[in-house]
# Entry
Amino acid sequence: MPISTSNIKITSSEQLTPEYLKSINDYLWTLSPTDILTWAIDHLPNLYQTTAFGLTGLATVDMISKISLDRDQPHLVPLIFLDTLYHFQETLDLANRVQSTYDAPLHVFHPDGTSTPQQFENEHGQELWRVDEDMYDYLVKVEPARRAYETLNVKSVITGRRRSQKGDRENIPILEVDGTGLIKLNPLALWDFQQVWTYIRANEVPYNALVDQGYKSIGDHHSTKRPGESNAQGERDGRWAGSQKTECGLHKDYFKMRAAFMAAKKKRQEQQQQRSHVPMLTA
# Structure
């Protein structure tokens, strides 16, 4: 049965064999982002949108709002926001504005056991993003995301990744399944920055005030360079400037990052135990 006319709702990523996934992507490739989202709402299980309120995510929220209004229903896809504790204040302000503008359910998750930068640094040390960036990514993005998915029983997520962002995103499909079995939808995968920005302006979508200062990609304040502070050329080159890093960890191999985190945690505990057994020297 053609994908476009199928009434079969996907209930698990296990249904998405490589052949079936390819046929769905072949179909989705012919649709507009709004039609892709409409298909996803009707076919994907336990669908949520993960967003840090970048331009692509904002355009997606607006499209979902329009679909919801056309169906005379509340906002159909709840939002998940991972508050790393190091976002710009402009990003936090925008999160509140988006929630109120679209009346969208918003679930906020912080690093486990912490709700302020001071608490996080008391637990994990100063500037962990410099000391061990993989550990930092795991603690502020990967673990909170997995906790969100388990808490909310998320089976499918909408992301803001696009091919024009280059790096690891250059060849992403519209629909994929990651190593944990999570279904990921990239509805604007084929749009470039100008298409997204045109949509934002034409539809009067709320956006981050930092965009008007020249930022295109906005993450944590410590890893996002101001315009003119880097030789940024690509859409995400202002992020992690001077390094080879292109992803925050959220779209990397979860099991590999989890194993690395546990190994580092074990090593740190062993070092602490060794220090506790060192005899004190007295004069």
Observations:
- Residues 9 and 282 are 73 Å apart (CA to CA).
